[in-house]
Write the structure tokens for this entry.
Amino acid sequence: MKSISGAQKTGFLFFFIALVLRLFVAILSPGTDDVQNFIRTARLTQQGLVVYQYHEAYPYPPLYAWVLAGTLNFTDRIGLEPGFSVRLPAILADSIIAVIVFQIASHLNPKVAPKIGWLYAFNPITIMITSHHGQFDPLAYLMAILAVWSYQITSNHYLSALLLGLGGALKVSPLFLAPTWLPSLSRTSQRFFFVLLTLLPFALALLIGVVMAPQQFIENVLGYRIVAEGGWGYNFITLLIEHIARWFRMEVILALAWRIRSLHQHILIAGILLTAWLVRREDILKRTFLIQISVQLFAGRWGHEYTAWIVPLAILSNQQGVLPWGVLTILWMITAYTGFVTTLTHSGRLAHSSNFSLLSKLCEHYCHPT
């Protein structure tokens, strides 16, 4: 019988520490409105109802609804509170990402790999997103990180494509990284097959959703927030121009700014493809990271949970010590998390995202129970 290696023991330790920490925060945190939305999603699915016909606040493919229902089917039997239980899939996935990040770093630079693993295990961004906010971006993004790791150890493009597609069947974000692998494929037929494999699980998930509830799925999922919102990335400039145009009553400029905001999905895809072409000669990890950065830059709308997408790659960007852009990744993470904490304060909805919100909710929950 094979003995467990030191690297495997370290990986188990990362998983255990990351999991315990996230579970501890989830136990203390009452959660946000997203937690309540996911409880309702799970309950409707458990009853055999089509969630899109009864719950507009679920704008995702059906796969995660089934994951939630399966989770509550199990946790209800052992008496766990549903507000805690619906956070478990994302918490488990984020803890696994800590191990995968360590494994990727070990392959590149074993000396610094433990530090990289601890950085992810203790990073505050995904802890807050999974354990407090209750969003499931790390569950979808786990597939993207697995795609990077599997390519690192097997060089199998098509396995990476399927993993990206599975992630996309949960949430579209992993699909944005697909252009990372295209420069490694020499023939057009290979690239076509790679894209086909990537899109297949995603398209199947959408097709199932359309079949389940055609009108509601098209309106609430495919038509979800089709206009750019929020002052993130390029849209900050668009909103600034729009504000100035409104102030000076420049109707032509105002109409142009609105048109740009309505094209944000096309701008995002164009920005990703341009970046992929510019970084085509870089190694796979750098390409992945820089393409993910382009997603953050060109995304026309932004949710706090989207910051989870950049964390593993930002941490891995420092795997060779101080890379030329390593410091920038750290600053990016600080900026992203500061935005995560403060953005909703400005709009008067602090209770959904910040550390202050977590502390105040805990005080209210435990000091003034109702």
